[in-house]
Amino acid sequence: MSKNIQTHNANINLIKKFLDYANCADASYASSKYALYFIFGIFVIALLNGCSFSFKYIDPQYYEFKRLCKKAEDEVTIYNEDYWEIIEKHSDIETNDRGCFYSQKLKQEICFGNFNYKSCTEYKRGSLSKLSIKRYYNNIHYATQIEYNYKYFGLYLKGDEAAGWHWKTSNILICEDLKNEKRH
Contact 63/128 with Cβ under 8 angstroms? Predict the structure, then answer.
């Protein structure tokens, strides 16, 4: 079977369509080249902007986390007011070299090293998790707090010349971090 290709009998409209398609492909290549320049430009800006880039501001769970943190300040159940008051005012209390002081109210020596806590995750939904923190002094349960954590993703350059540089891709926020953001 022989092929009989007759280019001189080709339809001029088909040739025009083929050339239009070829021009469209060139334009598509040119626009993809500019898209790559655009992506590279964003990467350079992110590096010059403190070497970090975060997606938390476009995540609806971040705003849910902020709302829950405002509510969490009221989610404290105090069983022993005296121990809670000591922890709340610990920065104003003078201690000896062992980290202890005598409490007139409790009529005993209180050592800050004996305060501890146990936390357990009540639920985890996506990037958001709820923690129940039980606080103890000498195995006496004096308070239960509710805290929230938010894990967010981005690109962060960490380290220094001595320890070496590394990329980190996620961070965790706690409600205390939001309070510190407002102070700055």
Answer: no
